[in-house]
Structures are given as C-alpha cells and as structure tokens.
Amino acid sequence: MDHPSAYYSVDTMAEMMQLERRQLTRLFAQETGLSPAQWVEQTRLAIARRLLESDRNPLKIIAAEAGFGAVRTLRRAFQRHLGITPVEYRKRFGQSL
User: Torsion-angle region of residue 6: left (phi > 0), alpha (psi -120 to 50) or beta?
Assistant: First the structure.
C-alpha cells in the first residue's frame, strides 16, 4: 500500500482491481485468509509498527501516516492485535533515539 491513509472500502478496492465486490472478497480470502478490511488494518498496523520502531514522531503523526487517522483508532488496533498500546510497543521495540 503506497497510500495507507487513502480510503479503502471493499467497493473502492474492487473498482481499483476491476472486479466485482464478491469476487474481490473471495480472492482475498483465498490468497490471504483475510477479508479486505482485515488486510487493510493489518497492513496499516505493520506500517505503524515500523514507524514506532524507527522514529520518535508523536502518535498523532504516526496514526495519520499509517492510515489510522486518529490515535484512538491506532490504539484500538494495537490492543486488538498485539494486546499492548502503541506507547508500550515503542518502549519495547523502538530505537533509542
């Protein structure tokens, strides 16, 4: 995802790929084992993790750059997938800058 902050609804993604909505959903499940929404969230989470590990930007900037939009949304994704907050993640895995 070159533009993680872009709007990625299933309909938008299907249009980008020139597929029907059901076909896109089915292909995502076959290829990734995820729904399109799950894939987008996990991709954004990977971007946020990389940013938290490599720089000291405020969470507001990281949330925006990773496509979450708000710190609250970023925090919820971290809690749901990793069981920790972005601040805790940065403390454990971030570089000492």
Answer: beta
Q: What is the pLDDT of residues 24-72, one digit of tens each?
A: 999 999 999 999 999 999 999 999 999 999 989 999 999 999 999 899 9
SS3 state at 35: coil
Tokens of 84: 């920790």
Q: Which residues lie closer than 8 Å to 79 by C-beta, 6 or more apart?
A: 85
Class of domain 10-93: mainly alpha
If phi > 0 it is left, if psi is from -120 to 50 it is alpha, else beta; for residue 85 that is beta
pTM (two decimals): 0.86
Q: Where are the domains of the chain?
A: 10-93
